[in-house]
């Protein structure tokens, strides 16, 4: 399988300014932050980074730690935009800013896939704060947005309102992704596109345990059953897991062997503004019917 890289270029409200020595400096609107980045093993372009805050990791590699922020950074967040989508960024305890900017080229790719489709219907599993949902809704898709966390779904609906998209055809569901997809299969439903961004580990609203390596094969099999030869795409991203892009690519290829189109796998990267180098952020596998 040939690997592809899908690279996020800087945009008005987001850029990876510089990276190196295990850290990265990014801009989120008018604020700059430093976060740990183990993959940035190289030397940074500059060593006098100025930022409005820094995430100081705890002793535990996978979690813990805290933000050190200047008083100007609003605790309730601030407004950012990507194309038609407007959303709140804020410094979360999970190191990130409440959305994943490296997904921007994925949002564009999916919009390209549904171009020309009449009222396409797409599913966003593990949809979090909903920027992907809004990106597709703005391009004319009817959306089903699924996330186990009531708080995340509320944040996503808030982002829809901020974007002036509260009246777009979006079903906002607080549900376990696996259970929801299995139910849709039983109902004989079909979709034009599916995006899924499963965490390594998670919990459904009723305590259902999600473990990526155990749950992914069944979930991909069910997603395939919701797509047919007229569907447009499936996009799977995986972060922070000891898996190769080839492994998830072969998994998707096996399940999509009987559909037209192609399966590709590779890495998501973000372009550093200082030198143009690419910082890898996630692996992905995708199917498209073109
Ligand atoms: C932000 S995405 C994952 C992003 C990225 N893959 C990562 O791990 O950093 C995680 C989302 O999945 C949701 N989630 C976790 N377990 C779930 C489940 N069983 N069903 C539906 N959503 C779930 C969480 O509420 C959260 O909003």
TrEMBL record:
Task: Please give the Gene Ontology molecular function terms for this protein.
Answer: methyltransferase activity
Keyword Methyltransferase among record annotations: yes
Concerning InterPro entries, the annotation shows: Glyco_hydro_b, SAM-dependent_MTases_sf
A GO BP entry: methylation
Alphabetic keyword roster? Methyltransferase, Transferase
Q: Which domain of life is it from?
A: Bacteria
Q: Which SUPFAM superfamilies match?
A: S-adenosyl-L-methionine-dependent methyltransferases
Q: What is this protein called?
A: SAM-dependent methyltransferase
| UniProt source species | Sphingomonas spermidinifaciens
């Amino acid at each position: 399988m040939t690997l592809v890289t899908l690279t996020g270029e800087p945009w008005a409200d987001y850029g990876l300014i510089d990276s190196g020595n295990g850290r990265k400096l990014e801009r989120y609107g008018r604020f700059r932050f430093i976060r740990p980045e183990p993959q940035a093993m190289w030397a940074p372009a500059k060593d006098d980074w100025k930022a409005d805050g820094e995430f100081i990791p705890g002793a535990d590699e996978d979690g813990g730690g805290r933000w050190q922020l200047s008083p100007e950074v609003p605790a309730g967040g601030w407004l950012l935009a990507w194309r038609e989508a407007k959303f709140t960024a804020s410094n979360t305890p999970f190191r990130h800013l409440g959305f994943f900017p490296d997904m921007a080229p994925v949002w564009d790719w999916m919009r390209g896939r549904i171009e020309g489709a009449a009222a396409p219907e797409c599913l966003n599993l593990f949809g979090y704060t909903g920027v992907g949902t809004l990106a597709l809704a703005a391009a004319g898709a009817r959306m089903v947005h699924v996330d186990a966390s009531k708080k995340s779904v509320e944040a996503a609906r808030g982002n829809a309102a901020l974007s002036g998209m509260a009246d777009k055809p979006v079903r906002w569901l607080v549900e376990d992704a696996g259970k929801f997809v299995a139910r849709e299969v039983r109902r004989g439903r079909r979709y034009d596109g599916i995006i899924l961004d499963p965490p390594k580990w998670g919990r459904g609203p009723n305590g259902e345990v999600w473990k990526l390596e155990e749950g992914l094969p069944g979930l991909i099999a069910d997603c395939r059953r919701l797509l047919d030869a007229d569907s447009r795409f499936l996009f799977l991203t995986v972060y922070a897991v000891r898996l190769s892009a080839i492994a998830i690519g072969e998994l998707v290829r096996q399940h999509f062997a009987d559909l037209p189109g192609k399966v590709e796998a590779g890495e998501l990267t973000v372009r550093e503004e200082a030198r143009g180098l690419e910082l890898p952020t996630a692996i992905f596998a995708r199917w498209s019917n073109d």
